[in-house]
Amino acid sequence: MTLGLPGHLARDSQSRALANAGHAAAYTCLGIGVVLCGVMATIGGRPERWNVALLLIIMVVLLTLVARYPTVTLTVLYLIVGAGIVLAITIMIMPDGEFPTTSNAALALPATALLLVGGAGSGSAIAVTWTTLGFALSEAAAFLGVVIAGSVYSPNLAVCFAFAIVVIVRVFDGVTRRFDMRRETGLHRASQQTRELAIRHDYELRATARLHDTALSHLVAIAAAGSGPVDERLRVGIRQDLGLIVGRDWAIDHALGNDGSTGTTALRSFAPPAGASSSTPPGATARGGRASGWRGRARANGMATDPRTPVEETVPSLSHAFSAAANAGLDVRVTGDFSVLATLGPRRVAALDAAVAQCLINVARHAGVDQAELALGLGGGEVTVAVMDSGVGFDESEVPPDRIGLRTSIRARIEQEQGTVRLWSTKGIGTTIVLTVPEGGE
Asked: Could you tell me the pTM of the whole model?
Protein backbone atom coordinates (compact mmCIF):
# COMPACT_ATOMS: atom_id res chain seq x y z
CA MET A 1 0.00 0.00 0.00
CA THR A 2 1.38 3.39 -1.00
CA LEU A 3 -1.43 5.66 0.27
CA GLY A 4 -1.63 7.12 -3.25
CA LEU A 5 1.74 8.85 -2.75
CA PRO A 6 4.77 8.75 -5.06
CA GLY A 7 7.22 5.96 -4.29
CA HIS A 8 9.90 8.26 -2.83
CA LEU A 9 7.35 9.70 -0.36
CA ALA A 10 5.26 6.62 0.46
CA ARG A 11 8.02 4.85 2.42
CA ASP A 12 8.70 7.65 4.89
CA SER A 13 5.03 8.59 5.22
CA GLN A 14 3.88 5.04 5.98
CA SER A 15 6.73 4.39 8.40
CA ARG A 16 5.93 7.53 10.35
CA ALA A 17 2.22 6.69 10.33
CA LEU A 18 2.90 3.22 11.79
CA ALA A 19 5.35 4.70 14.31
CA ASN A 20 2.74 7.25 15.41
CA ALA A 21 0.21 4.45 15.84
CA GLY A 22 2.74 2.59 18.01
CA HIS A 23 3.36 5.70 20.07
CA ALA A 24 -0.36 6.11 20.64
CA ALA A 25 -0.57 2.50 21.90
CA ALA A 26 2.48 3.07 24.15
CA TYR A 27 0.88 6.21 25.63
CA THR A 28 -2.24 4.14 26.31
CA CYS A 29 -0.26 1.45 28.15
CA LEU A 30 1.66 3.96 30.25
CA GLY A 31 -1.49 5.95 30.96
CA ILE A 32 -3.31 2.84 32.18
CA GLY A 33 -0.31 2.00 34.40
CA VAL A 34 -0.27 5.46 35.97
CA VAL A 35 -4.01 5.32 36.66
CA LEU A 36 -3.80 1.84 38.22
CA CYS A 37 -0.90 2.89 40.42
CA GLY A 38 -2.82 5.99 41.52
CA VAL A 39 -5.89 3.91 42.39
CA MET A 40 -3.82 1.41 44.36
CA ALA A 41 -1.99 4.20 46.18
CA THR A 42 -5.14 6.10 47.20
CA ILE A 43 -7.85 3.47 47.51
CA GLY A 44 -5.82 0.32 48.06
CA GLY A 45 -3.67 1.80 50.77
CA ARG A 46 -0.40 1.21 48.90
CA PRO A 47 1.34 4.61 48.88
CA GLU A 48 4.57 3.05 47.55
CA ARG A 49 2.78 2.63 44.25
CA TRP A 50 3.27 6.36 43.70
CA ASN A 51 6.91 5.55 43.02
CA VAL A 52 5.89 3.22 40.20
CA ALA A 53 3.57 5.90 38.81
CA LEU A 54 6.45 8.40 38.85
CA LEU A 55 8.67 6.00 36.90
CA LEU A 56 5.94 5.52 34.31
CA ILE A 57 5.56 9.31 33.96
CA ILE A 58 9.31 9.53 33.23
CA MET A 59 8.78 7.02 30.38
CA VAL A 60 5.91 9.18 29.08
CA VAL A 61 8.21 12.22 28.96
CA LEU A 62 10.95 10.32 27.13
CA LEU A 63 8.45 8.81 24.69
CA THR A 64 7.17 12.32 23.93
CA LEU A 65 10.72 13.43 23.09
CA VAL A 66 11.22 10.43 20.79
CA ALA A 67 7.91 11.10 19.04
CA ARG A 68 8.79 14.78 18.59
CA TYR A 69 12.45 14.28 17.68
CA PRO A 70 12.96 10.73 16.33
CA THR A 71 16.75 10.64 16.54
CA VAL A 72 19.01 7.69 17.29
CA THR A 73 20.26 9.30 20.51
CA LEU A 74 16.80 9.84 21.98
CA THR A 75 15.67 6.38 20.87
CA VAL A 76 18.63 4.70 22.58
CA LEU A 77 18.11 6.87 25.68
CA TYR A 78 14.45 5.84 25.83
CA LEU A 79 15.35 2.14 25.54
CA ILE A 80 18.05 2.30 28.23
CA VAL A 81 16.01 4.36 30.70
CA GLY A 82 12.90 2.27 29.95
CA ALA A 83 14.79 -0.95 30.62
CA GLY A 84 16.02 0.51 33.92
CA ILE A 85 12.44 1.44 34.84
CA VAL A 86 11.19 -2.08 34.06
CA LEU A 87 14.01 -3.41 36.27
CA ALA A 88 13.07 -1.05 39.11
CA ILE A 89 9.36 -1.88 38.87
CA THR A 90 10.13 -5.61 38.89
CA ILE A 91 12.20 -5.20 42.06
CA MET A 92 9.40 -3.15 43.66
CA ILE A 93 6.41 -5.40 42.97
CA MET A 94 7.75 -8.95 42.82
CA PRO A 95 8.86 -9.44 46.49
CA ASP A 96 5.32 -8.71 47.71
CA GLY A 97 4.08 -12.06 46.45
CA GLU A 98 1.21 -10.34 44.68
CA PHE A 99 2.38 -11.78 41.36
CA PRO A 100 3.78 -15.32 41.19
CA THR A 101 5.82 -14.75 38.01
CA THR A 102 6.90 -11.90 35.76
CA SER A 103 4.11 -12.78 33.31
CA ASN A 104 1.70 -10.24 34.75
CA ALA A 105 -0.16 -7.12 33.70
CA ALA A 106 1.85 -4.75 35.91
CA LEU A 107 5.07 -5.51 34.06
CA ALA A 108 3.37 -5.97 30.68
CA LEU A 109 2.34 -2.30 30.49
CA PRO A 110 5.83 -0.66 30.66
CA ALA A 111 7.44 -3.51 28.70
CA THR A 112 4.93 -3.14 25.85
CA ALA A 113 5.48 0.63 25.81
CA LEU A 114 9.21 -0.08 25.50
CA LEU A 115 8.95 -2.21 22.36
CA LEU A 116 6.55 0.30 20.73
CA VAL A 117 9.33 2.91 20.59
CA GLY A 118 9.16 3.35 16.79
CA GLY A 119 12.51 5.11 16.78
CA ALA A 120 14.64 6.92 14.27
CA GLY A 121 14.77 6.11 10.57
CA SER A 122 12.19 4.75 8.17
CA GLY A 123 11.51 1.38 6.66
CA SER A 124 10.28 -1.91 8.03
CA ALA A 125 13.73 -3.36 8.73
CA ILE A 126 14.74 -0.45 10.97
CA ALA A 127 11.38 -0.52 12.77
CA VAL A 128 11.68 -4.27 13.45
CA THR A 129 15.21 -3.70 14.77
CA TRP A 130 14.06 -1.08 17.30
CA THR A 131 11.10 -3.25 18.31
CA THR A 132 13.33 -6.27 18.85
CA LEU A 133 15.74 -4.21 20.98
CA GLY A 134 12.85 -2.95 23.09
CA PHE A 135 11.47 -6.46 23.59
CA ALA A 136 14.89 -7.94 24.43
CA LEU A 137 15.75 -5.18 26.91
CA SER A 138 12.39 -5.42 28.68
CA GLU A 139 12.68 -9.19 29.12
CA ALA A 140 16.31 -8.91 30.19
CA ALA A 141 15.38 -6.24 32.75
CA ALA A 142 12.52 -8.39 34.09
CA PHE A 143 14.84 -11.42 34.36
CA LEU A 144 17.51 -9.42 36.19
CA GLY A 145 14.86 -7.97 38.48
CA VAL A 146 13.51 -11.35 39.60
CA VAL A 147 17.08 -12.53 40.17
CA ILE A 148 17.65 -9.59 42.50
CA ALA A 149 14.22 -9.96 44.15
CA GLY A 150 14.46 -13.73 44.44
CA SER A 151 11.26 -14.40 42.49
CA VAL A 152 10.31 -16.58 39.53
CA TYR A 153 10.90 -15.47 35.92
CA SER A 154 8.49 -16.35 33.15
CA PRO A 155 8.24 -14.76 29.68
CA ASN A 156 5.46 -12.21 29.71
CA LEU A 157 2.84 -13.60 27.32
CA ALA A 158 1.17 -10.23 26.77
CA VAL A 159 4.50 -8.64 25.81
CA CYS A 160 5.35 -11.57 23.52
CA PHE A 161 1.97 -11.23 21.81
CA ALA A 162 2.44 -7.47 21.32
CA PHE A 163 5.94 -8.09 19.93
CA ALA A 164 4.62 -10.67 17.46
CA ILE A 165 1.84 -8.34 16.29
CA VAL A 166 4.24 -5.43 15.68
CA VAL A 167 6.71 -7.63 13.77
CA ILE A 168 3.96 -9.14 11.61
CA VAL A 169 2.54 -5.71 10.76
CA ARG A 170 5.95 -4.29 9.90
CA VAL A 171 7.02 -7.29 7.81
CA PHE A 172 3.71 -7.31 5.94
CA ASP A 173 4.03 -3.59 5.29
CA GLY A 174 7.56 -4.02 3.94
CA VAL A 175 6.64 -6.90 1.63
CA THR A 176 3.50 -5.30 0.22
CA ARG A 177 5.24 -1.97 -0.21
CA ARG A 178 7.97 -3.63 -2.25
CA PHE A 179 5.39 -5.16 -4.57
CA ASP A 180 3.54 -1.83 -4.79
CA MET A 181 6.76 -0.01 -5.63
CA ARG A 182 7.46 -2.47 -8.43
CA ARG A 183 3.95 -2.01 -9.77
CA GLU A 184 4.25 1.76 -9.38
CA THR A 185 7.55 1.65 -11.27
CA GLY A 186 5.80 -0.13 -14.13
CA LEU A 187 2.98 2.41 -14.09
CA HIS A 188 5.48 5.27 -14.03
CA ARG A 189 7.32 3.76 -16.98
CA ALA A 190 4.06 3.37 -18.90
CA SER A 191 3.07 6.95 -18.05
CA GLN A 192 6.46 8.20 -19.20
CA GLN A 193 6.13 6.33 -22.48
CA THR A 194 2.66 7.83 -22.95
CA ARG A 195 4.05 11.32 -22.43
CA GLU A 196 6.88 10.61 -24.86
CA LEU A 197 4.42 9.41 -27.48
CA ALA A 198 2.28 12.51 -26.96
CA ILE A 199 5.33 14.76 -27.35
CA ARG A 200 6.43 12.86 -30.44
CA HIS A 201 2.93 13.14 -31.92
CA ASP A 202 2.93 16.87 -31.20
CA TYR A 203 6.25 17.33 -32.96
CA GLU A 204 5.13 15.22 -35.89
CA LEU A 205 2.07 17.41 -36.32
CA ARG A 206 4.19 20.55 -36.11
CA ALA A 207 6.73 19.17 -38.55
CA THR A 208 4.08 18.02 -41.02
CA ALA A 209 2.36 21.41 -40.90
CA ARG A 210 5.70 23.20 -41.24
CA LEU A 211 6.75 21.11 -44.25
CA HIS A 212 3.34 21.45 -45.89
CA ASP A 213 3.21 25.23 -45.36
CA THR A 214 6.75 25.76 -46.60
CA ALA A 215 6.48 23.62 -49.72
CA LEU A 216 3.04 24.96 -50.63
CA SER A 217 4.16 28.56 -50.10
CA HIS A 218 7.13 28.04 -52.42
CA LEU A 219 4.92 26.54 -55.11
CA VAL A 220 2.43 29.40 -54.85
CA ALA A 221 5.23 31.97 -54.94
CA ILE A 222 6.82 30.34 -58.01
CA ALA A 223 3.44 30.20 -59.76
CA ALA A 224 2.75 33.86 -58.96
CA ALA A 225 6.18 34.86 -60.26
CA GLY A 226 5.13 33.99 -63.80
CA SER A 227 7.25 32.59 -66.60
CA GLY A 228 10.94 33.17 -67.03
CA PRO A 229 13.86 32.87 -64.62
CA VAL A 230 13.09 32.59 -60.91
CA ASP A 231 13.76 35.81 -59.04
CA GLU A 232 17.03 35.68 -57.11
CA ARG A 233 15.31 36.73 -53.87
CA LEU A 234 12.89 33.83 -54.22
CA ARG A 235 15.74 31.49 -55.05
CA VAL A 236 17.64 32.55 -51.91
CA GLY A 237 14.49 32.20 -49.83
CA ILE A 238 13.89 28.66 -51.07
CA ARG A 239 17.50 27.74 -50.34
CA GLN A 240 17.25 29.13 -46.81
CA ASP A 241 14.01 27.31 -46.10
CA LEU A 242 15.52 24.09 -47.38
CA GLY A 243 18.36 24.56 -44.90
CA LEU A 244 15.78 25.14 -42.15
CA ILE A 245 13.83 21.98 -42.96
CA VAL A 246 16.86 19.68 -43.01
CA GLY A 247 18.49 21.38 -40.00
CA ARG A 248 18.25 20.58 -36.30
CA ASP A 249 15.46 23.10 -35.59
CA TRP A 250 13.14 22.02 -38.40
CA ALA A 251 10.16 21.54 -36.04
CA ILE A 252 10.56 24.78 -34.08
CA ASP A 253 7.89 27.46 -34.34
CA HIS A 254 9.77 30.63 -35.33
CA ALA A 255 8.44 33.93 -34.12
CA LEU A 256 7.13 36.47 -36.57
CA GLY A 257 9.58 39.16 -37.53
CA ASN A 258 8.95 42.74 -38.58
CA ASP A 259 9.08 41.64 -42.18
CA GLY A 260 6.20 39.23 -41.74
CA SER A 261 8.39 36.15 -41.86
CA THR A 262 7.80 32.99 -39.90
CA GLY A 263 10.87 31.13 -41.00
CA THR A 264 9.37 30.66 -44.48
CA THR A 265 11.47 33.01 -46.53
CA ALA A 266 9.42 32.51 -49.67
CA LEU A 267 6.83 34.64 -47.94
CA ARG A 268 9.47 37.02 -46.67
CA SER A 269 10.45 37.74 -50.27
CA PHE A 270 7.00 39.25 -50.85
CA ALA A 271 6.70 41.12 -47.56
CA PRO A 272 5.60 44.77 -47.68
CA PRO A 273 8.33 47.32 -48.16
CA ALA A 274 10.27 48.74 -45.25
CA GLY A 275 8.47 51.47 -43.40
CA ALA A 276 5.03 50.19 -44.35
CA SER A 277 2.68 48.36 -42.06
CA SER A 278 2.89 44.63 -42.68
CA SER A 279 -0.67 44.09 -41.50
CA THR A 280 -3.81 45.12 -43.30
CA PRO A 281 -5.90 47.42 -41.08
CA PRO A 282 -9.63 47.06 -40.55
CA GLY A 283 -11.51 47.90 -43.70
CA ALA A 284 -8.42 47.72 -45.94
CA THR A 285 -7.83 45.42 -48.89
CA ALA A 286 -4.68 43.46 -49.76
CA ARG A 287 -4.05 42.30 -53.30
CA GLY A 288 -0.95 40.92 -54.94
CA GLY A 289 1.40 42.87 -52.72
CA ARG A 290 0.44 46.25 -54.29
CA ALA A 291 1.26 49.30 -52.21
CA SER A 292 -2.44 50.08 -51.85
CA GLY A 293 -2.87 46.72 -50.19
CA TRP A 294 -0.71 47.80 -47.27
CA ARG A 295 -1.72 51.44 -47.04
CA GLY A 296 -3.48 52.89 -43.99
CA ARG A 297 -3.15 52.87 -40.25
CA ALA A 298 -3.67 49.98 -37.84
CA ARG A 299 -5.64 50.69 -34.71
CA ALA A 300 -4.58 49.34 -31.32
CA ASN A 301 -6.81 49.91 -28.30
CA GLY A 302 -8.84 52.47 -30.28
CA MET A 303 -5.87 54.75 -31.10
CA ALA A 304 -4.21 55.18 -34.49
CA THR A 305 -0.52 54.36 -34.74
CA ASP A 306 2.11 56.13 -36.74
CA PRO A 307 1.97 54.74 -40.29
CA ARG A 308 5.76 54.82 -40.39
CA THR A 309 5.94 52.42 -37.42
CA PRO A 310 5.69 48.69 -38.20
CA VAL A 311 2.48 47.42 -36.70
CA GLU A 312 4.26 44.52 -34.96
CA GLU A 313 5.79 46.99 -32.54
CA THR A 314 2.37 48.13 -31.34
CA VAL A 315 -0.08 45.25 -31.81
CA PRO A 316 0.14 41.63 -33.04
CA SER A 317 -0.81 41.07 -36.66
CA LEU A 318 -1.50 38.37 -39.22
CA SER A 319 1.40 39.34 -41.46
CA HIS A 320 2.08 35.75 -42.51
CA ALA A 321 -1.51 35.35 -43.68
CA PHE A 322 -1.49 38.60 -45.67
CA SER A 323 1.86 37.75 -47.23
CA ALA A 324 0.43 34.40 -48.32
CA ALA A 325 -2.63 36.15 -49.77
CA ALA A 326 -0.40 38.62 -51.60
CA ASN A 327 1.71 35.82 -53.04
CA ALA A 328 -1.40 34.06 -54.30
CA GLY A 329 -2.89 37.25 -55.83
CA LEU A 330 -5.88 37.16 -53.47
CA ASP A 331 -7.89 40.24 -52.40
CA VAL A 332 -8.65 40.10 -48.67
CA ARG A 333 -11.29 42.35 -47.13
CA VAL A 334 -10.78 42.72 -43.36
CA THR A 335 -13.35 43.64 -40.75
CA GLY A 336 -12.75 43.86 -37.03
CA ASP A 337 -9.88 45.13 -34.91
CA PHE A 338 -6.40 43.61 -34.85
CA SER A 339 -5.99 44.69 -31.23
CA VAL A 340 -7.94 41.57 -30.17
CA LEU A 341 -4.80 39.58 -31.04
CA ALA A 342 -3.02 41.34 -28.18
CA THR A 343 -4.93 39.10 -25.78
CA LEU A 344 -3.07 36.05 -27.13
CA GLY A 345 0.41 34.79 -26.34
CA PRO A 346 3.07 34.94 -29.11
CA ARG A 347 2.93 31.21 -29.90
CA ARG A 348 -0.85 31.26 -30.08
CA VAL A 349 -0.76 34.29 -32.40
CA ALA A 350 1.79 32.51 -34.63
CA ALA A 351 -0.38 29.37 -34.78
CA LEU A 352 -3.48 31.42 -35.65
CA ASP A 353 -1.52 33.38 -38.26
CA ALA A 354 -0.23 30.20 -39.92
CA ALA A 355 -3.70 28.61 -39.91
CA VAL A 356 -5.31 31.70 -41.45
CA ALA A 357 -2.56 31.75 -44.09
CA GLN A 358 -3.39 28.17 -45.01
CA CYS A 359 -7.10 29.07 -45.24
CA LEU A 360 -6.32 31.93 -47.64
CA ILE A 361 -4.02 29.73 -49.74
CA ASN A 362 -6.82 27.16 -49.97
CA VAL A 363 -9.20 29.88 -51.15
CA ALA A 364 -6.74 30.98 -53.83
CA ARG A 365 -6.10 27.42 -55.02
CA HIS A 366 -9.50 25.78 -54.79
CA ALA A 367 -12.34 28.30 -54.43
CA GLY A 368 -12.12 29.68 -57.99
CA VAL A 369 -12.32 33.30 -56.78
CA ASP A 370 -9.78 36.02 -56.17
CA GLN A 371 -11.50 37.60 -53.17
CA ALA A 372 -11.97 36.57 -49.56
CA GLU A 373 -13.18 38.20 -46.37
CA LEU A 374 -11.46 38.06 -43.00
CA ALA A 375 -13.30 38.94 -39.78
CA LEU A 376 -11.77 39.23 -36.29
CA GLY A 377 -13.61 39.36 -33.00
CA LEU A 378 -13.29 38.85 -29.26
CA GLY A 379 -15.94 37.47 -26.94
CA GLY A 380 -16.43 34.99 -24.14
CA GLY A 381 -12.70 34.85 -23.45
CA GLU A 382 -11.95 33.70 -27.00
CA VAL A 383 -10.48 35.28 -30.12
CA THR A 384 -12.30 34.33 -33.30
CA VAL A 385 -11.08 34.73 -36.87
CA ALA A 386 -13.44 33.86 -39.73
CA VAL A 387 -12.27 33.33 -43.32
CA MET A 388 -15.10 33.55 -45.88
CA ASP A 389 -15.28 33.21 -49.65
CA SER A 390 -18.06 32.93 -52.23
CA GLY A 391 -16.30 30.30 -54.30
CA VAL A 392 -17.24 26.85 -55.54
CA GLY A 393 -17.47 25.30 -52.06
CA PHE A 394 -16.78 21.66 -51.24
CA ASP A 395 -17.88 18.71 -49.15
CA GLU A 396 -15.41 18.07 -46.34
CA SER A 397 -16.28 14.37 -46.29
CA GLU A 398 -15.08 14.10 -49.89
CA VAL A 399 -11.61 15.48 -49.11
CA PRO A 400 -9.05 12.67 -49.68
CA PRO A 401 -7.35 11.47 -46.48
CA ASP A 402 -3.91 12.23 -47.89
CA ARG A 403 -4.69 15.98 -48.10
CA ILE A 404 -3.16 17.48 -44.99
CA GLY A 405 -3.86 21.19 -45.49
CA LEU A 406 -7.18 21.37 -43.64
CA ARG A 407 -6.51 18.45 -41.32
CA THR A 408 -2.98 19.31 -40.17
CA SER A 409 -2.02 22.87 -41.11
CA ILE A 410 -5.35 24.28 -39.92
CA ARG A 411 -7.34 22.01 -37.63
CA ALA A 412 -4.51 20.21 -35.79
CA ARG A 413 -2.53 23.44 -35.41
CA ILE A 414 -5.45 25.26 -33.77
CA GLU A 415 -6.41 22.28 -31.60
CA GLN A 416 -2.84 22.16 -30.25
CA GLU A 417 -3.57 25.61 -28.80
CA GLN A 418 -6.83 24.35 -27.20
CA GLY A 419 -8.82 26.03 -29.94
CA THR A 420 -11.59 24.85 -32.27
CA VAL A 421 -12.16 24.90 -36.02
CA ARG A 422 -15.65 25.00 -37.51
CA LEU A 423 -16.31 24.79 -41.22
CA TRP A 424 -19.42 25.45 -43.30
CA SER A 425 -19.28 24.94 -47.04
CA THR A 426 -21.91 24.55 -49.74
CA LYS A 427 -21.08 23.74 -53.33
CA GLY A 428 -21.72 26.72 -55.58
CA ILE A 429 -22.20 29.13 -52.66
CA GLY A 430 -18.91 29.32 -50.78
CA THR A 431 -17.02 28.38 -47.65
CA THR A 432 -16.70 29.81 -44.16
CA ILE A 433 -14.03 28.64 -41.71
CA VAL A 434 -14.16 29.92 -38.12
CA LEU A 435 -11.00 29.60 -36.03
CA THR A 436 -11.40 30.15 -32.30
CA VAL A 437 -8.63 30.14 -29.68
CA PRO A 438 -8.83 31.02 -25.96
CA GLU A 439 -7.22 34.16 -24.63
CA GLY A 440 -3.74 33.94 -23.12
CA GLY A 441 -1.40 31.07 -23.89
CA GLU A 442 2.32 31.10 -24.42
From this structure: 0.44
